[in-house]
What we know:
The complex is a heterodimer of chains A (114) and B (110).
Chain A: E1 4-7, E2 10-14, E3 20-25, E4 30-38, E5 45-50, E6 56-59, E7 62-67, E8 72-77, E9 86-94, E10 103-104, E11 108-113
Parallel strand pairs in A: 2-11
Antiparallel strand pairs in A: 1-3, 3-8, 4-5, 4-9, 6-7, 7-8, 9-10, 9-11
Chain B: E1 4-6, E2 10-13, E3 19-25, E4 31-38, E5 42-51, E6 54-57, E7 64-70, E8 73-78, E9 87-95, E10 98-101, E11 105-109
Parallel strand pairs in B: 2-11
Antiparallel strand pairs in B: 1-3, 3-8, 4-5, 4-9, 5-6, 7-8, 9-10, 9-11
Amino acid sequence: xxxxxxxxxxxxxxxxxxxxxxxxxxxxxxxxxxxxxxxxxxxxxxxxxxxxxxxxxxxxxxxxxxxxxxxxxxxxxxxxxxxxxxxxxxxxxxxxxxxxxxxxxxxxxxxxxx
Amino acid sequence: xxxxxxxxxxxxxxxxxxxxxxxxxxxxxxxxxxxxxxxxxxxxxxxxxxxxxxxxxxxxxxxxxxxxxxxxxxxxxxxxxxxxxxxxxxxxxxxxxxxxxxxxxxxxxx
Lengths: 114, 110
C-alpha cells in the first residue's frame, strides 16, 4: 500500500513531442505528489508538485494531471527539448508536505532527440 | 537557494571498513534524510531525522546507522562496509514545500 508505481521505465521522443509519464498509488492517505528531475551525476531536483484538491497544475512547460478517483497522476512535458533529457521520479507522501517521508516511483529515463 | 552539500562525490573503500558520509544543509531545516539510489530500484530511504539526536529507520536500515548531533549535519555510517553497499548515496533536507537533495556520493566498496 506504500508503493508508487511509475511507467514507463524509459521513453524516447523527438524534440517538440509531449512525453507523458504516469504514476499510480494505493494509499488514499497520500496528499502530496511531487515530481523530481535528475540529470546524470546530480541529485534529484524538485520540479513540480500537486495536492489532491486540484486536478491540474502547470509550471512552464511542465504539467501535472491528477485523477483522485483513479489514484493516478501524470507528468506532461510540452514542447520537449533535448535539455529535458533526464530521469524523472514521481513521489507521494501523506500528512501535508515534503517534510514527511516520500515514497518514490522507480523512475523514467527520458531521452529527447534533436 | 537551499544548499545541501555532501562531503565526497566519489569514495572507494574496502570491505569491512567503517565509512562515514557527511551531509550539511544551510537552511535550518528540521528534517533530513538519507537515501540510496540503485539502477532500476529508484530511491530507497535508509534513515531520516526530524530533529537533533532524533532518528527513525527507513525502508532499508540494515547495515547502516546515523548521527545527528547538530541541526545542520546528518551523518550516515556504514559500520562494516560490504560490496552490496556499493551505490549512490543521496542526502536531502526538507521544508513543507519539498525535499531538497545534495549532489550524491558514489561509494564503491571493493
